[in-house]
Design a protein that fits this description.
A hairpin with a 6-residue loop joins strand 2 (67-72) and strand 3 (79-85). The chain has 174 residues and is of the alpha+beta class. The radius of gyration is 15 Å and the shape is globular. The chain has one domain (5-172). The chain is built from six helices and six strands.
Length: 174
């Protein structure tokens, strides 16, 4: 399992790597905009916020795979918002070339059910489709260059960022 951003990107073909680099940069920029002082430091994700409004970080330390995680003072735990799967798939995951959202995990971290559902609806504007149950995946999941065919488009990346921003705005009001 890739334990760093660089290892993860090396497990992607060139087109998907470029798309992931752009997506990760957009997410890091959003994190800074929302008040996360250092979105690249995943080591502090589970530590007390201590005056920081939130931490929005891409974490590579989970054995299940890399994920975008939100630590927020109004949540009961760290919420995994999105999961990322590489295209070359050296770990032989069943999920490849995709970004997924497991919406059922969000209420476990303290996100209201209605807000998790709205997050899912907003992700559909960014090229996500149902993956069964409360799971969404990019519409080209599993296909060659599946990530780049969705996220090479700035509009889809912007829609993903908008979905995350809207969810954080809802959580701020809890």
């Amino acid at each position: 399992m890739a334990r760093t951003r660089d290892e993860f990107l090396q497990d992607c073909d060139a087109e998907d790597r470029s798309a992931y680099e752009s997506l990760f940069e957009d997410v890091d920029n959003l994190a800074r905009e929302l008040g996360d002082p250092d979105p690249s430091d995943e080591t502090t994700l589970n530590k007390p916020l201590e005056g920081v409004p939130l931490r929005l970080r891409i974490s590579f330390g989970d054995p299940k795979g890399p994920s975008l995680r939100l630590a927020h003072g109004k949540l009961g735990g760290v919420a995994p918002l999105l999961w990322f799967f590489p295209s070359q798939n050296e770990e032989r995951w069943t999920a490849v070339n995709r970004v997924s959202a497991l919406l059922a995990q969000l209420p476990k971290a303290g996100v209201k059910d209605a807000d998790a559902a709205t997050f899912g609806l907003n992700l559909k504007k960014a090229g996500f489709v149902s993956g069964g149950g409360k799971v969404l995946k990019t519409s080209t999941a599993g296909e060659r260059t599946g990530v780049s065919r969705v996220f090479r488009w700035e509009s889809n990346r912007a829609d993903l960022v908008t979905a995350v921003r809207a969810l954080v705005t809802k959580i701020n009001a809890y």
